[in-house]
Amino acid sequence: MNISVLSDGGWGTALAMVLCENKHSVTLWGPFPDYLAEMARTRRNDRFLKGVELPAALRFEPDLARAVAAADLIVLAAPTQYVRGTLEKLRAVPRPAGIIYLNVAKGIETGSCKRISELVSEVLGDVRYAILSGPSHAEEVARRVPTAVMTASRDPQAAETVQQAFMNEYLRVYTSDDVVGAELGGSLKNVLALAAGVLDGMGMGDNTKAALMTRGIVEMARLGQMLGGRPETFSGLSGIGDLIVTCTSKHSRNRHVGEELGKGRKLPDIQQEMGLVVAEGVTTAKSAFQLSRQVGADTPIIDEVHACLYDGKDPREIVRDLMLRDPKPEIHRG
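The structure assignment produced for this chain is given below.
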């Protein structure tokens, strides 16, 4: 296949490496031509994916129209808050008919509270759309660490095409038709990973994090189902699987931000130190909070993460308030 990866970030680069290894013709486009030229010259992406040599077959193209001119599949790999701008650029250039648009970002647009599938539909119209999600850090996929993910599409052939394009001996891909659940699972887990990081920064123990993750998946599933996702999706790779890895991994940017907050640092200072590296959960927390208010979902952990990020609430007060909520049964029936 001819595949265009739009974004020079770590995840887009790692997936481009997988696709090259699977013998596809892969072109990588990014918003900064000078950096693309540096990557082409050095065969490295040390800004976002240090210590990995890029395949000789990977092509770099700063002109978007040329990058997608012959594409069978376009991988949308920019951080969520930049996806709309990328789509608007795409709309202005010629593209082949029948192309599949594969989103690999994990977030919800701030302000509109729209998922990526909704943005794609709004900007590009009725196109073939799929999402790739699951517990998959770029740092490990780029080093061929065995990983399992899922792809979801309302078009079964599109899901199968993505599955076949990416699968190999170290990346296993499952299919689903629950686009809403897959998008929300991948997005909401980033908010909960911020909370997990806060606990780490405060020096809390394994009991505390286990409680957070267990109640967190309940919260994800509750909100996700009210927004149209299926419950079984949140028990799968894009739900509990992604939650586990993001809450526990040293590679998790969202857990890192939470950890620094738990140590008492301020969010602007943490983000400035991270530079161009984006923690999607920071903006998604705002959208998730707004969505939970719209549908009347009970989301105490999301609410407290939002209060920590945007109201300046002390993390120690957050833990206390969560622990002292009214007593409830673990499982609500009926």
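Interim note for the steering committee: The mean pLDDT is 95. The beta strands are 2-6, 25-29, 44-45, 49-53, 59-60, 73-76, 100-103, 128-133, 147-152, 171-176.
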